[in-house]
Amino acid sequence: MEMRERTTMSETAKGGLLPDFGSFWLVLARAIPVKPQNSSETAAAWSVFRLNWLVLAGLWMTFGLCLLLTDFRVRSQGYIALLCVTLVYGCIGYAKAHSGARAKPWLFSFLTGLAQTVLAFSVLASLSYIVTAAGLPLQDANLLAIDQSLGFDFRHYLSFVNDRPWLITVLGFGYRSIAWSIVVIVVALPLLGHCRRIAEFNLAISLTAALTCCMTLIVPAVGVYYALGLTPSDYPNLLPQAYYDTARDMPLVRDGTLRLLDISQLVGIVTFPSFHAAAVVLYGWALWPLRWLRPFNVILNGTMLLSTPVGGGHFLIDIIAGIVIALVSILVARFVAQRADTLKALDQRPAEGCSAFLKTLRGFHQHQRA
């Protein structure tokens, strides 16, 4: 019985898995009826995807600059394979979006979404090591104090879960779903005609990755198990592998021992904020348009959220921060997408575009007053 978090992040980023992954889903997609998509949906999706390419380029350029300014090194084969494969997916997606009458919006959205998702998860895992190397004072004691002021007793919650093997199994399943849920999102949304939603989701993921790295730099922490001085004998039925991964790599990064980054081995040493908690919000929002999937969506993401404290050794405040960051990222992504629609309307139909622009400003002003 085990719960894993950050190893699933690295599994998502492994370059060697990408070709087989894409081929498998392309074959599967050919056998599934595809919902027709209108041109406006495709155009809106492309506008958001294009912006997200800029965001991802900025994140990867930041990573490259950090490599130049620090003593970190990378195992080049893995990163080259990752970038090449995602570049191929992105280029094919671009071609499918600009093929005139032969354009396939669902395939364009699927391939572009796949490429951008993998790049976002990979750069988050990579940058988490570099920001951790800043070596700022650990904040575990302060985070624990905040939890206690909120009335959250982690020891009691841990004992409750540890004493119920069936609950460990359920929470473990929910915890690991961070990896395969992303597959459902990247495949299902394009096939069912929600091209714009997958584009907004990818932009929100990239923004969440950027904000998470910034917060991890400022508030480094090992985890609640470390803060409370807990040992495996205190939870004999649990194996919080994600926490163990962080507890293993973080000291090595902070003291300068670990400086070689292998994309296939990175675990993503993020404690504050919880990326799992952010993923719960992002995944739930991404799949919300699929009404028939909502019950499963709520149950699965709720299970993932409940598993986050024991599975990743997270403080309650980590989870709250992750949720807030995800909500902010979604709001920004939605605002950007609406603004892209307005600018497109201004280009194509000036009178209608101005009306749409004024309507957008009026709605934003009313939202600010509320």
Describe the structure concisely for a colleague:
The protein has 370 residues and is mostly helical.
- Backbone shape: globular
Task: Give the number of helices.
Answer: 15
What is the terminal separation in angstroms? 47 Å
**Average pLDDT level:** 84
> Which band does the percent of strand residues land in?
under 5%
How many domains?
1
Low-confidence stretches: 3-22, 24-36, 345-351
The secondary-structure element order is HHHEHHHHHHHHEHHHH
Characterize the quaternary organization of these chains: single chain
**Rg over C-alpha atoms, rounded to the nearest angstrom:** 21 Å
**Major pleated sheet:** 2 strands, parallel
Strand order of the largest sheet: 1-2
Q: Structural class of the secondary elements?
A: mainly alpha
Give the tally of β-strands.
2
Q: What does this protein look like?
A:
It is built from 15 helices and two strands. It has a two-stranded parallel sheet. It is mainly α and about 375 residues long. The protein is globular. Helix 3 runs parallel beside helix 5 (about 105-130). The protein starts with 5 loop residues before the first helix and ends with a helix.
What features would you highlight for this structure?
2 strands, globular, two-stranded parallel ribbon, single chain, 370 residues, mainly alpha, 75% helix
